[in-house]
Specification:
By secondary structure, the protein is an alpha/beta fold. The protein is built from eleven helices and twelve strands. Pfam families: M20_dimer, Peptidase_M20.
Length: 401
């Protein structure tokens, strides 16, 4: 079903198109990794302040997080547009967060410019550290989202989707400790931390046959030793453990940790384990909002595919937000289908004219959705009703997590 975007809103986004492109390219050429996005945060906050938003920097104790609010003259709901702007280590904006930031900012500025007397509060939340830092989770825990009634954002990808399931994830660092020794002269005096890590990764491979097909366990040896002729006394493994739901993840992680303990026991080493980020929850896409934004993009000539359980994404901290309040995270195609995320081709696509056209379309639709959420109480009630029905509630005797 197509739904037209109001002409004045389309015109406002069109006028902001040069800003979107310039900001996107600026962030793309200045990639900053999680919680180091000082340049990006300053650029985004500065543009929002210039557009009349009230900006607060360093919120939730995170130096590169911010909020920007545009308050209407009468009470009403609070609707948040979420921005991401961190890049990947070594490869830059291969996840397209430059487009999320530029497109989301454009949507918010256009909505405020066209409907300055909207009810309630239009809020922009700058969320750092999505790539393994859990910035949204920290901001959620520290109260930034307490008064938010609905949150919206979009993500670039290899296809356009109304919604996409994402996996819950646990970020683990496993540090094996051994005893250093000369690897040729007296290896029997040593205990190899590298052997412990190697055996652990072999155990994880053996475990794969006995976990559900929804599970993903993958990682790297972040530190293997200092020299080939020294028995390594410390080896670090960074591992992601993923599952379709947080409950399934809670059941899988202890099995992975048991494999680490067994590998340490077998090799005469010890192992320390730590979670390096808050656990990301699965995504609970609000389909009432999803169908509305899909209707708007269709009216702009962009069809969003319906969600499919056979096409999961990775993991994102928007999942934790989406199980606390209604949220959406649609995808917009910026490259050839099946282009892998977190790759050089995706990085190059994120700076292309095609990407900026796609981000402009999504920004226009998202601005229209935001104004619906602020100004149509019946629509927001339907959004909330679907959210209430979709989030599991604790049974008698259980405490909410």
């Amino acid at each position: 079903m197509k739904q037209p975007v109001p002409a004045d809103l389309r015109a406002a986004v069109h006028e902001l198109r040069p800003l979107l492109e310039q900001l996107s390219l600026d962030l793309h050429t200045t990639p900053e990794t999680r919680f180091e996005e000082h340049y990006a945060a300053e650029q985004l906050a500065g543009r929002l302040a210039a557009a009349g938003f009230e900006v607060s920097k360093g919120v939730a104790g995170l130096p590169t997080a911010f909020t920007a609010t545009h308050r209407g003259p009468v009470d009403g709901p609070t609707v948040a547009v979420l921005l991401e702007y961190d890049a990947l280590p070594g490869i830059g904006h291969a996840c397209g967060h430059n487009l999320i930031a530029a497109g989301g900012l454009t949507a918010a500025v256009a909505a405020a410019a066209v409907r300055p007397e909207h009810p309630g509060t239009l809020m922009v939340i700058g969320t750092p550290g999505e790539e393994g830092g859990g910035g949204k989770i920290l901001m959620l825990e520290r109260g930034v989202f307490d008064d938010v009634d609905a949150a919206v954002m979009f993500h670039p990808g290899d296809r356009s989707l109304m919604a996409r399931h994402a996996l819950a994830v646990c970020h683990l660092r496993l540090t094996f400790h051994g005893v250093a020794a000369h690897a040729a002269k007296m290896p029997w005096d040593g205990r190899s931390a590298a052997a412990g890590a190697q055996l652990f990764l072999t155990a994880v491979d053996s475990l794969r046959q006995f976990v559900p097909p929804t599970a993903r366990v993958h990682g790297i040896i972040a530190h293997g030793g200092s020299a080939p002729n020294v028995v390594p006394d410390r080896t670090e493994v960074d591992l992601f453990v993923r599952e379709a739901t947080s409950a399934a993840l809670d059941a899988l992680v202890p099995r992975v940790l048991a494999a680490a303990d067994g590998a340490a026991l077998a090799t005469g080493t010890t192992v320390e384990t730590a979670e390096t980020a808050p656990r990301y929850a699965e995504r609970n896409d609000n389909l009432v909002m999803g169908r509305r934004i899909a209707a708007y993009t269709a009216g702009l000539g962009l069809e969003l595919e319906p969600p499919s359980p056979s096409n999961p994404a990775g993991s994102s901290d928007i999942g934790n937000v989406s199980i606390k309040l209604p949220a959406i995270h649609p995808y917009v195609q910026i490259c050839a289908r099946d282009t892998p995320s977190h790759s050089v081709p995706m990085r190059e696509a994120a700076r292309s004219p095609r990407a900026h056209e796609a981000a402009t379309t999504m920004a226009t639709a998202m601005a229209a959705l935001v104004l619906d959420l602020l100004g149509d109480p019946e629509f927001l009630t339907a959004v909330r009703a679907e959210f209430d029905a979709s989030v599991p509630r604790p049974t008698a005797g259980q405490e909410p997590s």
